[in-house]
Specification:
Blueprint lengths: L7 E6 L4 E6 L5 E14 L2 E22 L8 H9 L13 E4 L9 E17 L2 E15 L16 E4 L6 H8 L3 H8 L12 E4 L20
Antiparallel strand pairs: 1-2, 1-5, 2-4, 3-4, 4-7, 6-7, 8-9
Length: 224
């Protein structure tokens, strides 16, 4: 049967548990989350609105674990819901869950931040010990956002200055620096590099290929 969203919520945990609970007496409410904005003042002009990012939603959902009408023990559902607050072991986060029903935030994946248990409780004796047939609670849900690893790209290599030594030519410098002769000419706006005065400062572009005695990169080889 399809879920009657006017009466029930269906909690579907990532471990395969499906827990049906009644809607509580109060409406679900959004506590926090959504876009964050800054107002940037500008002299003699209207302030500028700057978007800073977005926070996960926090939502309180009143529910009732109700087995009174059907004479059903709800202790098992209560324990399973409470276990969503606990880690499954060392370095392992708690389970996530989805929540279906009439909610201000639909879809998404949640984690259980806290559960506030109410006092609307009906007990039924069972061989000397009581079991709950009804229990109200407020599920404090936090929208789950998976952890990501921040990667920082290295900046592209930059050209460096080089002082020509006695006896060096553009061709010998290009071979020594593992760059093409043409790249070295282009970086220094030089057409004929046969005659270089010792002490001249030239720019060495980033290494793009290992070449000796050629103005074109070697085929099939990429330098470091």
């Amino acid at each position: 049967m399809p879920l009657d969203a006017s009466k029930y919520y269906l909690l579907r945990a990532s471990n395969g548990w499906d827990i049906m609970v009644r809607r509580g007496l109060g409406a679900p409410t959004i506590i926090s989350g959504g876009a964050r904005w800054d107002l940037v003042e500008r002299p003699r002009r209207k302030s500028m609105v700057v978007w800073k990012g977005e926070d996960p939603w926090r939502m309180n959902v009143p529910v009732i674990f109700d087995g009174w009408i059907d004479d059903k023990n709800v202790e098992y559902d209560i324990r399973r819901t409470a276990q969503l607050l606990q880690s499954r072991g060392d370095r392992v986060p708690p389970y996530t869950f989805r929540l279906d029903g009439a909610l201000p935030v639909s879809g998404g994946v949640w984690v259980m931040e806290n559960i506030e248990w109410g006092d609307n409780v009906y007990w039924r004796p069972n061989r000397g010990s009581g079991v709950r047939m009804r229990q109200d609670a407020t599920l404090q849900c936090l929208e789950y956002e998976a952890e990501t690893v921040l990667t920082i790209n290295k900046p592209p290599p930059m050209s460096i200055q080089y002082r020509v030594q006695a006896g060096e030519t553009l061709q010998s410098i290009a071979a020594k620096r593992h760059i093409t002769l043409q790249a070295l000419k282009d970086a220094n706006n030089i057409r004929d590099g046969k005659k270089l005065k010792p002490g001249t400062l030239i720019m060495i572009p980033p290494s793009v290929g290992a070449v000796t005695g050629s103005s074109q990169p070697s085929k099939g080889h990429i330098g470091a």
